[in-house]
Amino acid sequence: MNAASSRLAPNPLTLAVVRNKLKAISEEMVETMTRTCFSPILNQNQDFSAVLLDAEIRTVAQAERVPIHMGAMPLAVRMMADAFRGDLAEGDVLMANDPFWGGSHLPDVTLAMPFFHAGEIAFWVALRAHQGDIGGISAGGYSAAAREIWQEGLRLPPVKLVDGGRLRKDILRLVATNSRKPEDLEGDLLAQLAAVRIGHARLSELFTRYRGEEVAGCVQAMLDGGEAVMRAMLAGCREGRHSGLSHMEFAQAPGGLLPIPVTVTIDNGRAVVDLTECPDQVAAFINSPFANTRAAVMVAFLYFSGDDQGLNDGSARAIEIRTRKGSLLDPVSPAPVGACTSSTACALIEALLQALEGADPARAIGGFARRFRFALAGQDRGGRPFIWHYFFNKGGTGGNAEHDGWANIGGLHNPGGTPSPSVERTEAAYPLLVEEYSLLTDSGGAGTRRGGLGGRLRLRYVGDRPAVLNASGEGVLVPPFASQGGTAGPGHAYSVEHGDGCIDRLGVHDSGVAIEPGATIVCISAGGGGHGDPANRPRDAVRRDVAYGYVSEGAARTVYDWQVEATGKT
Amino acid sequence: MMVGIDVGGTFTDLVVAHPELGLRFVKSPSTPDDPSRGVLDALELLAADLGRPLGEVLADIELFIHGTTVATNILVQRRGAKLGLITTAGFRDLLELREGSRDNRYALRVAAPEPIIARPLRREIGERTGFDGAALLPLDRDDTRRAIEDLRAAGVNGVVVCLLHAHRNPEHERAVRELIEAAGWSPFVSLSHEILNREGEYDRLSTASVNAYVGPGLQTYLNRLFGRLTEQGIRVPVLVMQSHGGVLPVEDAGRLAVGAVTSGPAGGAKAGAMFARALGLPRLVTYDTGGTTTDVCIVNDGVPAERDRTDLADMRITAPAIEVNPLGIGGGSIAWIDPAGILEIGPQSAGAVPGPACFGKGGTRATLTDANLVLGLLPETGFLGGRFQLDLEQARAAVNRDVAEPLGLSIEEAAWAIHVLASSRITEGIRLATVRRGLDPREFAMMSFGGAGGLHANEVARDLQIPSVIIPRFASVLSALGFLAADVRRDRQRTVNAPINSLSAHDLETIFKDLANEAHAAMSSSVAGQGDGETWTDRVAECRYERQIHTLPIPTKAGDTPFDLERRFTETYGELYQHSHPGEPAIVETCRVSVYSPLPKLDLPRYPVEPGADAARALCGKRRIHIGREVQAPVYRFEYLVAGMTIAGPALIDAASTSVLVLEGSLASIDETGSLRISDQPA
């Protein structure tokens, strides 16, 4: 669409209603997806997000179920549009997942459908969903063993899944055949297709009610508004260069740690995020393609501002991101990228939150427990093979100026987004016995506002034959950071207690660990980082911490300078 | 004489179906400090209306159904019992661990919810049951006795007992209760398997905790109410409205207190269902716009849609309930300009206090009600015969300051923008509620009630392409009216968790029969003699594919074989999701029954049609209104309208506590139930 000349300054009524409609359309898309998707990862976790983008491929409305999807989608759709420039028609639906074509990691498959008005593309409707399996060397797509992107699964540069309204069954078959769960993948892609078509149909209704230039005027005003919100937030920050540093756990790096240094320069209501100092890309799955890096940056600013309402791609205009090609945060093919949406995103968000703390200390947040999961493969009670994924005990979140952190919410990439399964279901379905699942005293980072507690989970393997454990995650060497003079939370500590009494610590990338029948996996999850000087913690809060066993009396005395009161206890 | 009484935040509504006088209603101010007083006040008003002493009126009541938000308020305001927990060693923190989830993933600076059982009062005992019900560790009775004594000493008045796998083997939970009784202590006790007999420790624990938390308070209230009513001469049991739309007698309602926690909107949905049956509407969507929220319910084939899980006030309540889709929009919703410079409405609400600016009770911010008053859509004389005067100048000042000036609009333009945005919100909320169930809103009729609904109904229906809007004559007391459509209901369920094809027809029949017998046994104790009909039983098997989490409720009937069940599951799944999975085993996870004992039912009064009746008889004036432009609209009184009259929009219809806007191009008429019907004028 060409231009300011054809835009109208929107009527405030039309603007309010059109914004409400666009938001509702994106919500209806995710509802449609929720109702029709098949695989457990999608229908249980809602690991998908819908967006509406304008003619210039800027996100105007979104229904997010996963924060890390959002900032990445416009890049993916832009690459898809570029790939088919001049070759797009009414009824086409494009599909892609390739990280080097604007994607994140390979399981995240994006469908995008252009919406034509008066012969030109006026909107894009897109939905990204995390597919359960897209091939590659390990089921589910997170493989620490991958050295090249091809080992992570099927790469899809932009292709037409629907050509002029006709579903390309050949393409569908090709994609499904490359999955370990072809039926799931096919069912979920068709659900995605149904969802983008609903979005498209609703846009048609919108365009019959409002003239094209009216809608374009509203879109412009929404983007301008999003920019204004972000600029107002930045205008309240200290100007100048603020730096942050976090680390990723990577055995091949010196000291086992890979630094993620960032700077954020704030000047006149704008922010320049410089990521060029981060290390070169590595031959492991922790590289983050640019789209994912951009998404993580947007998530960090969103968390920092605390306002998820006024934000859209207009907000992004106030933020410039500088990366270096070939680096961990802007890698080139064939870098593997499987862990980018979780591990790398978390580390980057942490570094940015630390930098932003310097820009506006009042908004500072202590660090969150990182994601440390494992899969256990063996034989179930019926002698059939099983793979069980550890989703419990996610660890604490950081304190902030107003409140203590939460317990058991976990990683910054999707805090509290995926519920844990029930203990009873787990025991009924797998040869496992959960012996304990509880909060851990003294595990929250100390502060005026304490970090949320970590937990302890004891999991006994009660199968007949040895099982194999593969770990994947972060957060053993790097604990949740503190803010404003608080204390860092303790890191994760997982171990295996063997039947003979020997205890082995479990590393974040250990694989092929044999678990004999009777062995117990003990998972101690990280507590969140504390915020502010512990000496300033309100005495009532310390008293309650002790009474509730969140903090031991000893720690209360040494860390919080607490004098034991006569409690009437004998 | 049948009486339904609904205690709301502002008013206590009473509907009576009188054998000679027909349907009448009374509204009386609620008395939140002791709601039973407001109930008595309403009954006094009824007695005065009938010109008889209260005692005689009470003695004549054959059916008394009461709806209360006492339990809801206790939970929401966190004023419940001091609770103790007795649980399996290693698991005292489950309520606080919250399954590792939370609602808002972006607002990282909010406080964690305060668990309703303080950590020092959560006691672990030695015992363990396995997934198959086997006792892996016997119950440590000494441990348990110590825990009981500690909780007693701490002054606990509600005890929650939740042990792992108690749904497979409840022996240990029962033994704990026996030990509590043996100690000569009688706190309010909730055993998790009795409150929710199925797999999922968090759901059982949370639901049982809510039960014990609200139970003592609800019991106290109901006992006081029942005592007063008995004293004054009532002879029938007091029946209490439940979240699922059935009723329970006072004593059961107190024990199963969690069953009433989301009962607020149940009456309205039951009334919607009653109208849907009377009017032969296969699909009806109801929406009730109050001061703060709009509740959307769906009625299929005359039965309100249910769900089995509600998240309320940071707690999980797993109990059957009429499905309510709440929208954050009501008459008190505040209009504001958001940081992006765009008009927004809600979710903040001025509520009843301080209320909209036009209430003159201290509210100053522009609300939807203020906008509707500015537009001339509400009468300045207000409602309830002038008991609520509205202050137009305050409304204009608020709309001007909060919306018109910042956006550069006239006051009327600003008010219209607020009005239209509110309609758009309701529209999209209804659309999502239907889409969530895989239904198309165009197949629905729509019913609007509640104070603020009628001014938006016509626009909402047009936008959704819903052909017909129904606004019942008793819209202001619809919830109390709906109570008179209820039956006594008891539910029972059991986890089965087996492939459907591993069960025999005999297995399936035995499970359902046992459950129905349990439910019957629980019922007969209390409500004998209330209904005259036969009881009936609804059977539902919750089924899923093996690898899926979510189940689908599959209705079954006596004589259905597992083969029938599997076929119906596959069909239902296919209809909903447009695909099926032939290779995937189908599991029956839970079997549940609802046993109903019928109560006398209200027959909706039929209004005779007067062919050719002239609506001019109901005309009571004209108002200048702004609906995007200025119009002189005729104003009719709802109570003077009779079946056979037709009104062409634009027009306003004023009722006791609501106004209805009929748009240009629409026709309003009165149907045989006396309800207002709005539909598009034939082209």
Automatic annotation (TrEMBL), chain A:
<dbReference type="GO" id="GO:0017168">
    <property type="term" value="F:5-oxoprolinase (ATP-hydrolyzing) activity"/>
</dbReference>
<dbReference type="InterPro" id="IPR045079">
    <property type="entry name" value="Oxoprolinase-like"/>
</dbReference>
<dbReference type="Pfam" id="PF02538">
    <property type="entry name" value="Hydantoinase_B"/>
</dbReference>
<dbReference type="GO" id="GO:0006749">
    <property type="term" value="P:glutathione metabolic process"/>
</dbReference>
<dbReference type="InterPro" id="IPR003692">
    <property type="entry name" value="Hydantoinase_B"/>
</dbReference>
<feature type="domain" description="Hydantoinase B/oxoprolinase">
    <location>
        <begin position="11"/>
        <end position="534"/>
    </location>
</feature>
<dbReference type="GO" id="GO:0005829">
    <property type="term" value="C:cytosol"/>
</dbReference>
<protein>
    <submittedName>
        <fullName>N-methylhydantoinase B</fullName>
    </submittedName>
</protein>
TrEMBL record, chain B:
<dbReference type="GO" id="GO:0006749">
    <property type="term" value="P:glutathione metabolic process"/>
</dbReference>
<dbReference type="InterPro" id="IPR008040">
    <property type="entry name" value="Hydant_A_N"/>
</dbReference>
<feature type="domain" description="Hydantoinase/oxoprolinase N-terminal">
    <location>
        <begin position="3"/>
        <end position="182"/>
    </location>
</feature>
<dbReference type="Pfam" id="PF05378">
    <property type="entry name" value="Hydant_A_N"/>
</dbReference>
<protein>
    <submittedName>
        <fullName>N-methylhydantoinase A</fullName>
    </submittedName>
</protein>
<dbReference type="Pfam" id="PF01968">
    <property type="entry name" value="Hydantoinase_A"/>
</dbReference>
<dbReference type="InterPro" id="IPR002821">
    <property type="entry name" value="Hydantoinase_A"/>
</dbReference>
<dbReference type="InterPro" id="IPR049517">
    <property type="entry name" value="ACX-like_C"/>
</dbReference>
<dbReference type="GO" id="GO:0017168">
    <property type="term" value="F:5-oxoprolinase (ATP-hydrolyzing) activity"/>
</dbReference>
<feature type="domain" description="Hydantoinase A/oxoprolinase">
    <location>
        <begin position="204"/>
        <end position="491"/>
    </location>
</feature>
<dbReference type="GO" id="GO:0005829">
    <property type="term" value="C:cytosol"/>
</dbReference>
<dbReference type="InterPro" id="IPR045079">
    <property type="entry name" value="Oxoprolinase-like"/>
</dbReference>
<dbReference type="Pfam" id="PF19278">
    <property type="entry name" value="Hydant_A_C"/>
</dbReference>
<feature type="domain" description="Acetophenone carboxylase-like C-terminal">
    <location>
        <begin position="505"/>
        <end position="673"/>
    </location>
</feature>
